[in-house]
Amino acid sequence: MTVAVLGAGAFGTALAVALAREGRTVALWARSGAGAIAQARSAPRLPGVTLPPSVQVTGDLATAARAETLLLAVPMQQLAGFLADNAGALAGRVLVACCKGVDLASGRGPMQVLADICPSDRAALLTGPGFAADLARGLPTALTLACADAALGRALQTRLSTPALRLYRTTDTIGAELGGALKNVIAIAAGFVIGAGLGDSARAALMTRGYAEMKRFATARGARAQTLAGLSGFGDLVLTCTSDGSRNFRHGRALGAGQTTDPGATVEGVATARAVAALARDIGIDMPITTMVAAVLDRQLTLTEATDALMTRPLKEE
């Protein structure tokens, strides 16, 4: 089962490095700058990491797509357009989405986007608590591989696991994709809390109530609650709400501190907050933290107003 990674951002490059570390050949497709990456043996989005000789960098999508398994390391908000533009080249392959979030235009997660645009292809999702820098350095990492086809999931689990990358398998693709998407929203909120100087106790409370929101929304959409308690939900939530390595946390912290944010960073939780807040409102699911995050991002509320609104909600049982 040959493998290619489509997307030479930080996570895509890290995946290629991790999978090639055992000597297997992995193609890495870069939308731009493939020649420079191949010559320098490093990618701009993952500085300090040298690409192993077995990573073959190409700017030709057709060449990379000859692999049987394609890992789609494309940002969530670009996934639908990428698939629509390249459906012919991707046909007949196993497609593994490696992005997290909810498409702002349609409200779909990555697995729904794959099913709608590439219905004839077999699909899976790779998600969970893994930073690109840790993965590329060979540090121990555990992720979730979600695939509705149990046999395909077992094959991918075996093929994509390495001594430093341990994959856990689930058939609950809804729970896995929503856990990975929703935790980004809570991570932005956790960043608000720390940036504004509200303290670690407030962050712990927010993470706990945010996790309750994640489960409430995901199970209403057909997910299994136990999936949210796993790596793709709780595990990823802990990582992204407590580490400076999280772009979503850093984005929220900068806003909470009244600082400027990095315009070049991909912060999936921003679009996800807006999309999920709208979906929750439409289907009648109570998502107070997500709603407040979306309102602050859209400058409908100040952070102080959002905090007051959350703290003055009616008292209730946990």
How would you describe the overall organization of this protein?
The protein has 318 residues and is of the alpha/beta class. The chain folds into two domains: 3-171, NAD(P)-binding Rossmann-like Domain (Rossmann fold), CATH 3.40.50; 174-311, N-(1-d-carboxylethyl)-l-norvaline Dehydrogenase, domain 2. Helix content is 53%, strand content 12%. The chain is built from 15 helices and eight strands. It has helices spanning 10-20, 34-40, 61-64, 76-90, 110-117, 132-137, 150-160, 173-195, 200-220, 225-228, 231-242, 247-256, 268-283, 288-297, 303-311; strands at residues 3-6, 26-29, 55-58, 69-72, 94-97, 122-127, 141-146, 165-170. The chain has an eight-stranded mixed beta sheet with strand order 3-2-1-4-5-6-7-8, sandwiched between helices. Helix 8 packs parallel to helix 11 (231-242). The longest helix has 23 residues, at 173-195. It is globular.
